[in-house]
Amino acid sequence: MSATEQDAADAAAWYGARLGWPTAPYPASAPGQEPGTGRPRLATGVRFDVLEVPAAAGDEVLGRLPGPAAGPVVRHGARMRLLVAPGCAEELPGLLDWLEWGGVALDLVALGRGGSMPVPALPGAARGPGEPFWVRPPLARRGGERDGDRPVPLPALAGPPGCPGHPGPARACGTGGRAPDLVRLVAALATACHRVRLFPPPGRRAARNRQAWAFS
User: Fold this and answer.
1) b/e per residue, 198-216, with b = 16+ CB within 10 A?
2) CA nearest to 11, candidates 118, 116, 120
3) CA dist 202 to 31, 106, 140, 186, Å?
4) Rounded CA gap, 160 and 67, in Å?
5) Which alpha helices (DSSP H) does 65-201 contain, by range?
6) pLDDT in tens, the chain (216 residues)
7) Within 10 Å of residue 17's Cβ, how many Cβ atoms?
């Protein structure tokens, strides 16, 4: 196991002990890789679900929503993962329909039960190239050590009556407080994803043009 993999394994153990986040089984080994090696993964659909979007769309949403409104956020290369309350992944298709985004290609992916995501580096810790890291950490700082912080509430359904899965006032998972509104977050993400798809950043635009020429 490499030093990077060991750091990730230590981080996974910390997330499990501090936040109760279980790990997922290691994926199938690549050719030449020993079984049970590689970067560990956190299971989704147990303590949290994930909404994954292009990083450009995520940056736009984070610039518009205050910290608590988006919940914890991880960046991994050109993708951004926003942690939401467990069960929200199943609600996403109906919620997008209700918001009149149904049938639109958005590059908005939901990870729920049975899914997983690579373990991010610990908040504030050094990280290697290409490692996932926290843009908005899962713990709210209180001016002390990490262990003295409290979990950040995860966005949950708290929309007006009539929207999919409306449960009344949402409650933050594991905190007893009011959760950020998932409907507001998904609406912002859908708008940003659509804008990025229509007007991609220069790097993505160049890649799209190269792909178009390759098939012409």
Assistant:
1) eebeeeeeeeeeeeeeeee
2) 120
3) 35, 18, 35, 25
4) 22
5) 67-70, 88-98, 182-198
6) 677 888 899 999 999 999 999 999 766 544 554 555 578 999 999 999 999 999 999 999 999 998 778 999 999 999 999 999 999 999 999 999 999 999 999 999 999 999 999 999 999 898 888 899 999 999 986 655 555 588 999 999 865 555 555 544 444 443 344 668 999 999 999 999 999 999 998 765 545 544 444 444
7) 10
